[in-house]
Write a structure and sequence with these properties.
- By secondary structure, the protein is α+β, with helices and mostly antiparallel strands.
- The protein has 2 domains: 13-202, D-amino Acid Aminotransferase, Chain A, domain 1 (2-Layer Sandwich); 204-345, OB fold (Dihydrolipoamide Acetyltransferase, E2P) (Beta Barrel), CATH 2.40.50.140.
- It is 19% helix and 32% strand.
- It has helices at 64-69, 93-97, 104-113, 136-146, 163-172, 249-263, 273-278, 354-357; strands at 13-16, 26-31, 35-42, 45-50, 76-84, 86-87, 90-91, 117-126, 129-130, 154-156, 180-185, 195-201, 204-215, 224-232, 238-244, 303-315, 318-319, 322-323, 328-332.
- The strands form 5 sheets. Strands 3, 4, 5, 8, 9 and 10 form a 6-stranded mixed β-sheet that branches. A 5-stranded antiparallel β-sheet has the order 15-14-13-16-19.
C-alpha cells in the first residue's frame, strides 16, 4: 500500500479560548464529542488512526465499507475527523466507549446495534496532492469535492464564516451533545501536534461534596493527587460525579494537612462505605477505586473523607450523571452545607436534534 501520506500523523490540536474569536479570516465548525480519527486510504487499503496514533479499525468495522466507497474505487486521501455515535438525534459518547473491547464478537454486535458515523472536517491529502501546507480554505474546498455525494454514514461537518451562526450552534446544539465550537483561521496550514486552532467549550460551575481523595502517584502520603466529588440525587444517594486535580505541587502538599481532620472516622456512616469495603463495581453505581478496561494498570485506590467539605468546580458538561471531563477547582465553599450539593443546582440543557444541524440531511 502507498498512502498519500504515511501514517501515523499527529492530529492538529486546539487550545481553550474563553470567547468566540470574531473578525475577518475566521471559520467556525461544531466541536464534536467523539473519537478523533485520521483516515488514510489508498484505493482498497484503509487505515483509521486514533489521536494517540493507534489503530481504530477493528473497533469500528462498519465504517470500512462506506469509507472505501467514498470517492470511488480508485480514491486516495487522508482525512481528519471524528467518529461519533448518535442515538435519538443526539451524540452518545458512552456507546463509543463500549466499542473499545477485546472481543471481536462484542464489537460486531455493537456495530450492528449502534453503528458509528464519521464526521470529516479536514483533508490532508487528496489523490497524489499533499495538502498540509495549503491554507484551510483550499483544504475545505477539496474536502467538499470529495464529500459531494458521500455514503450516509460519512458526513461533512458544517462550516461557516458567520460568528452569529457559530454562536447559535454553541447555544442550541449543546442539547444534541455538541462539545462547543472550533474556530480556525482561514489561511491556517495543517500543523500536526500543534495547538493552532481555538476551542470554545461550555463552562459552568457546581458546588460538590468532597467525599474522598487519591494520593498523588509521585508522593503517596505527602501529596494529594485528586479530590473525589459527589452530588446528591433525588433518591438521596451521593453519586460520584468526577474528580478535580488542578493543583500545584505546593497546594497538593498543603491539602494533606487540610484534609487530615476529615479522614478521622470517615467510614462511619459514609455514603460510599460499601464501595470502599468491596472495591468493586456495583450495577448502576459509579465506583471510585475500581479498575476497568479503560484504566487497567492505574492505581485507583482512594481514601474516604467525612462528607462535610464543599468546593466549587468548573466543568464543561455532564455525560449521564457525571462530569464528561475532569473538573477545575475554583474555591472552597464553607458557606454551603453538603446536603445542598444536589443535581438540581445544574442548569438543564434544552434538547436539540443533530439532523437540524445538517439541514435535515
Amino acid at each position: 500500500m502507498a498512502f498519500p501520506i504515511a501514517p501515523p500523523i499527529e492530529p492538529m490540536l486546539a487550545k481553550p479560548t474563553p470567547e468566540l474569536p470574531i473578525g475577518d479570516g475566521w471559520r467556525y465548525e461544531p466541536k464534536w464529542d467523539g473519537f478523533r480519527a485520521l483516515v488514510f486510504r489508498d484505493r482498497t487499503d484503509l487505515f483509521i488512526q486514533s489521536r494517540d496514533l493507534k489503530p481504530l479499525d477493528r473497533y469500528f468495522p462498519e465504517l470500512l465499507p462506506p469509507l472505501l466507497e467514498l470517492g470511488g474505487p480508485a480514491a486516495r486521501f487522508v482525512l481528519d475527523g471524528e467518529i461519533v455515535i448518535a442515538r435519538d438525534g443526539a451524540l452518545d459518547f458512552d456507546a463509543l466507549l463500549l466499542r473499545i473491547h477485546p472481543a471481536a464478537s462484542r464489537v460486531a454486535m455493537l456495530a450492528s446495534e449502534t453503528p458509528a458515523s464519521y464526521v470529516a472536517f479536514d483533508c490532508l491529502a487528496s489523490g497524489s496532492d499533499d495538502l498540509r501546507d495549503a491554507p484551510l480554505d483550499e483544504r475545505r474546498g477539496r474536502l467538499e469535492e470529495l464529500l459531494a455525494e458521500p455514503p450516509p454514514s460519512v458526513l461533512l461537518t458544517p462550516s461557516t464564516a458567520d460568528p452569529a451562526l457559530a454562536g447559535e450552534w454553541f447555544d442550541v446544539f449543546e442539547g444534541a451533545g455538541l462539545d462547543g465550537v472550533i474556530a480556525k483561521p482561514s489561511d491556517l496550514r495543517y500543523l500536526p501536534g500543534k495547538r493552532a486552532m481555538a476551542k470554545i467549550k461550555h463552562q459552568r460551575t457546581a458546588d460538590c461534596v468532597v467525599a474522598g481523595f487519591r494520593w498523588h502517584k509521585n508522593g503517596p502520603g505527602t501529596m494529594v493527587g485528586s479530590l473525589l466529588l459527589g452530588l446528591w440525587n433525588a433518591a438521596g444517594d451521593l453519586q460520584h460525579v468526577g474528580v478535580t486535580s488542578s493543583f500545584t505541587e505546593e497546594r497538593r502538599r498543603e491539602l494533606v494537612a487540610l484534609l487530615d481532620p476529615y479522614r478521622r472516622n470517615a467510614l462511619e456512616g459514609h455514603p460510599w462505605r460499601e464501595w470502599k469495603e468491596w472495591e468493586e463495581e456495583r450495577e448502576g453505581r459509579r465506583v471510585p477505586g475500581t479498575t476497568s478496561r479503560w484504566n487497567r494498570g492505574k492505581d485507583l485506590s482512594w481514601e474516604p473523607l467525612r462528607p462535610e467539605l464543599v468546593c466549587e468546580v468548573a466543568f464543561d458538561h455532564l455525560q449521564g450523571d457525571r462530569f464528561r471531563h475532569a473538573s477545575t477547582f475554583k474555591r472552597w465553599r464553607p458557606d454551603r452545607p453538603p446536603d445542598s450539593c444536589r443535581y438540581d443546582q445544574l442548569a438543564e440543557t434544552a434538547p436539540a436534534l443533530l439532523a437540524d444541524l445538517f439541514g435535515q440531511r
